[in-house]
Every structure is written in C-alpha cells, then in structure tokens.
Amino acid sequence: xxxxxxxxxxxxxxxxxxxxxxxxxxxxxxxxxxxxxxxxxxxxxxxxxxxxxxxxxxxxxxxxxxxxxxxxxxxxxxxxxxxxxxxxxxxxxxxxxxxxxxxxxxxxxxxxxxxxxxxxxxxxxxxxxxxxxxxxxxxxxxxxxxxxxxxxxxxxxxxxxxxxxxxxxxxxxxxxxxxxxxxxxxxxxxxxxxxxxxxxxxxxxxxxxxxxxxxxxxxxxxxxxxxxxxxxxxxxxxxxxxxxxxxxxxxxxxxxxxxxxxxxxxxxxxxxxxxxxxxxxxxxxxxxxxxxxxxxxxxxxxxxxxxxxxxxxxxxxxxxxxxxxxxxxxxxxxxxxxxxxxxxxxxxxxxxxxxxxxxxxxxxxxxxxxxxxxxxxxxxxxxxxxxxxxxxxxxxxxxxxxxxxxxxxxxxxxxxxxxxxxxxxxxxx
Length: 429
Description:
This protein has helices spanning 18-25, 34-47, 65-73, 83-91, 108-117, 127-140, 178-187, 208-226, 254-265, 278-281, 314-318, 408-413; strands spanning 4-7, 10-13, 16-17, 29-33, 53-58, 77-80, 99-101, 121-124, 144-151, 173-174, 191-197, 233-235, 271-274, 285-296, 301-305, 324-326, 337-342, 351-358, 366-369, 391-395, 398-403. The chain has 429 residues and is of the alpha/beta class. It folds into two domains: 4-31 and 282-413, Lyase, Ornithine Decarboxylase, Chain A, domain 1; 103-274, Alpha-Beta Barrel (TIM Barrel). Strands 4, 14, 15, 16, 17, 18, 19, 20 and 21 form a nine-stranded mixed β-sheet that branches. The chain has an eight-stranded parallel barrel with strand order 5-6-7-8-9-11-12-13, surrounded by six helices.
C-alpha cells in the first residue's frame, strides 16, 4: 500500500496534488510520502513484536536526510555501508548504538570514525578486515563489537546483480569456515564477538531462500555457542521484495517474514536485527516527469520524457519494471497504445519501457514512475551535465523540498581549471 492515489481525476501524494508540486519545482522530481515510509517501517517493527529486535533501515536504499530523520524519530536503527552513510545517520540523530556498519570494503579510516563516534556492531566480511579492525580498535583502546557475515551459499532467486548469498559472490565468509574464523576472532585484541550476520540478496519475492539461510545460521549459532562464543545477536539482513507492478502477484508480507524468523531462529533467545530498505522506501516514492515529445517512428512510437537514465537508472541497469501512470487520470474506456518510453540522454540504453501499453499522451503531460523511492535518487548522476533532480517530501497537506535542484553554474563551479591552461583572455585571436 502507498499514499499515491487519484482524487477527482488528479494524482495526489497524500493530500497534495502532484501537479501542484510540479508547477512549483519543475520536472523531473522525486516525491516521497511520509505516511508510507512510517507505515512500512512499523509493519516490520510489528512483525517482530515480542522478540528482542531492532529494525535497522538500509540507508543505501534512500539516504535523503529527511527520510533518515523521519525514520530515526520512529525508532529505527540504521544499516550503513560507508563512512558517508554513517555520518548521515549520526546527523539524523541516530545514536551510535543503533547503527550497524556493513559492507565488504570498510577502510581503516571508516573503522576509526565509527569506533570513535559509537557503533552497535561491525558486520565483518573477511579475515583481513577482521585483523584491520582489531588493530584500529586496540590502538584506540576500544573494543569493536562484531558479527561475522557468513555466506550460506543460498540462491536468493533474484536478479544476478543483487544476489549476495551464493558462494561465487564477493560477500561474507564461507559458512563452512565460520567456526575457524570465529575462533581466530575470539583471540584478537579489541574484538568482541556478539553475533552472526547473513544477507542473501535484494528483491526476494519468496520466503524459501530466507528459510534456507536462516536455518543454516541457527545451526551455526548453536555450534558457536558450543565452542564458547557468546552469540547474543542474529543479524538477518534485508532483501524482502516489493510489488513493482499492480498485478495480483505480490511478495510475502512483513508479517509472514516475521513469522518465518520466529520459526527458524526464535528459540535461540538472540536479539534479532533486520535491515530492510527497499520495502520501506520503494513504494514510498515516485519520480514525476513531463512529456517533451510524442514521436512516431518507423516501427514504433516513442514517448520522450524530460527524465532520463541518469535520474532513474534501474530500468537500464537491471531491466527493472516501474509502472508508469499519467498524473491526470485517464477515462476508463480510453484505448491503450504501445509506447517505448525513453529519455533525452544520448544512449539507446536510456529506455524506461518498451512497447508499454499506455493511454494517449501529448507534449506537456505529466507522468509518474511508481515504486521509485528506493535506489532511485541515490543512484542518480549528472551524466550529460543534467542536474540531479530535486526531492520533495509530503506529509498530509504539507510538502517541501528536501533536496534542491542545482543550477548549471553550481555544477560547473565544482570543477577547477588548472592555472597552466590558457584562459579566455590569454587565448590568441
């Protein structure tokens, strides 16, 4: 469920007409619903009610400071994968003891910042990382709480680029070697082994891969306790998918996911951490764009928008589907026509949809890409010197920009021309 609905023939974001925002900030822009963000976070929190748990929002899904602040106020922890995301979480008011630091390539500088600023735990992904963390923690006179991320060799049955739990993936320590590496961790100075971490991928649409992974984690936790480790936390990662289409096929609900967690690891008495990102932010955001031209080609018709692959890269990178809807609600009986929906970037890959059945459009019409709140704005670029699009947050009847569109002068001013290059004044006539 989201809060982007038609009212009186106009698409609204909660209680605000989308066209009103477009008139004020221009297109394209991202729009986020506060009510949807909070609802989705609370669904996860309620799914684990009765278990000692912490829902850590995966900052990489959408790191806008307004979103982090909103979720922090609702009690969310944060899962970060860089020093920059750690800084964002702290700036949003999240205390260090509610921040989990994940990622395969943590630098020593990032480790130092997190140890000095406070951290709930590091999810350690390799033996070299473990040794580096031990050195940094010992040099600071600190103790680094850690969970080792184990790779359970489970097929998440998702897109190859977002699968993380197979043996050939770069993530984690092979589960067959886990006891050996835990033993080494227990001997290192500055290291406190607190738990086990697993994360098998993103956009999972069935529970079976989670079950396979969590059963392996439960078995490992029991063995580690038998080895003398005080395993008191289980970080079960994120990855629950969202419905990108309005079909009847929907991924499992957070309540079903919570029931699976209780069934597979609930008897261990561990604190459970989960790290949802896409399901919290995905359907809480739309990308709004305007039609520049409707072009008739030799074999197909094109809907050319002012949004492009640099604004929403998921269709180009992952062949991802986003529902595309008109901001003005079409008549029920209006005929649907096949369009290739494309942007203005000079790449054939700048294509959002092919032969998509849509109502007729004219130049100037507004369209909205649904389910664009996760991995949309955070993956955007300024390719073709196209300014990053503004982001807007809505709460009831209120709305405001939470990131402004930079001007071309601001973009160009970021570059420095070395003094040994000729200036306009010194160029020959």
